[in-house]
Structures
1.
Amino acid sequence: MTEFQLTPLRCGYVINHAVGSFLYRTDCGDARIDAPCIAWLLQAPGQTVMVDTGPGSCTQAPQHYRPGDPDDLLLLELARHGVDPSSIDTVILTHLHNDHVGGAGHFLNAIFHVQERELREAVWPVPFQRPIYEVNQRGRTPAWVQILDRVQALDGDGVIMPGVSTVTLPGHTSGSQGVLVDTAAGPHLLPGDLIPLRENWPGGGGPPIPNGNHTDLYAYERSFLRVAALVTSLGVTVLPSHDPRIFDQPSYPVIPTS
Ligand SMILES: [Zn+2]
């Protein structure tokens, strides 16, 4: 079995974001956070895969950078881990919001795995979603348009390679998908923005809470049931997409030392 190590890369921030915006119908008072935009580096012997690509450079997406940040956090993070983006041939995109696909242009030799349904939604989303897909914004070409020549569209669940598969998890967007990754400590799930914070998926600590940014709550509920089934049947570990506490560990799985 191919076992991967998952490393979170801090590629920008959703700055000064109301915590309550992540937690539908939950009173979080005035709490706000700079929520990291996380891309994931998956590494196994002979295999390197990216899941999501962050928002892109500060020039491209200044709204996701803090004063004093370097111009391109994703490139710096990859360099820190000794990874040349042009050496990566497989990128999986959980969905096409700009804070997940903005850095895609760095992966010049990659195939991008996206749900076909997400591509359809991105072309002409409902008006309130157009800025986050960068659609219908005068003078702007969405990052996802710039990689269309290398997109591999998925219609449902897919096996990307041994140890890495995708599961459809609609609700945040209609074509959202999660990524299941085999590790030495069992499968880990990157659920995309279905589960942005730990509080959205408290496990035994209460019912799951949808992201306040969603397109279909019925689909959301079915996706939560799907994640619950994965936890029950496979014992998956869920890694949220925008939670600052992800960086409490440099990589996953966390292997207990005895
Ligand atoms: Zn999103």
2.
Amino acid sequence: MAIIARDLTKIFKMPAHAPGIAGALKHVVHPQYTEKVAVDHVNFEIKDGESVAYIGPNGAGKSTTIKMLTGILYASGGEIEIQGVNPYKDRIANARNVGVVFGQRTQLWWDIPVEESFRLLKDIYEIPDARYKENMELFKEVFGLGEFITRTARRLSLGQRMRADLAASLLHDPKVLFLDEPTIGLDITVKENMRQLIRMMNRERGTTIILTSHDLQDIEDLCRRVIVIDQGRIISDVEREQLQSMFAHERGVRISLKKPGRDVYQKLLEHPELRLEMEDAHTITVMFDLHTHTAYEVISLVGELADIRDISVIEPDIKQVIEKIYRSELQVNS
Ligand SMILES: Nc1ncnc2c1ncn2[C@@H]1O[C@H](COP(=O)(O)OP(=O)(O)O)[C@@H](O)[C@H]1O
Ligand SMILES: [Mg+2]
């Protein structure tokens, strides 16, 4: 088993004291804390070579879980095994087994050339010369590292920095790769590039992938299984396809009109099967079921009532899926 989490729990304790010096002093005498349960008895098992999306709304506990699994944060309770290793008891063995990428921060040293950062990692992980050379050649080729490897991390674009970070996390051939929002802020071609690299590691090297992302495309392209966490608790754990088929029939169009559309909205209310929303005076979103309507029908319907300026299609996003799971419209079992 690549990863086992049993009753994994994290409670953050924060000092709570009244403002001002008096409050601070009182706190020293009688310390008071508020507690935040960020991760609450989380259980899962992930097999070797699986690719799993770990998703949920902001503040759900995703990053905290990943920090515990990678040994960055201590758990308040529960047990963890990564490749049979307890990450706290055997930090060194664990470091050899895992790679981590945080979209929001880099593991590269800011002020030294990227290739020097890689050399330092080589020494830290005691990567044999031949293996290092092989990996560097592969990464130069497929990650395009050659273009910027002599620059300092500080001088890289976000896309270059993310590619360098991903390469750095893979340099020691980890069996398990944790990716926390690896495509956040990247433009679409760089996102696609990152996905290809991650997919290659999973398919060709059998690297186990655990990924958090707000981008549905990341999840569709990279993950076979989806674990949903909300308020620190797992609310669903299913195959991605199962999750998708449950919301795949829902579509939406955002229609912007040349003139204010209050009256159009009123007329559309005669179709109770459509879910309508006025985004602003000129913009109506119409959600519909693909079983009963086509996008063309919906657009024509509105086109008969008013002049259309612009149209965009709304794909179901993770937030909607999670909301649905939460409202139990989707019957998902963990
Ligand atoms: N170091 C910390 N101290 C106190 N509270 C924290 C800390 N880190 C995270 N939290 C809180 O724990 C909860 C989960 O955070 P996080 O794991 O970062 O969520 P996610 O990654 O799903 O957005 C949030 O309510 C957050 O405010
Ligand atoms: Mg996070």
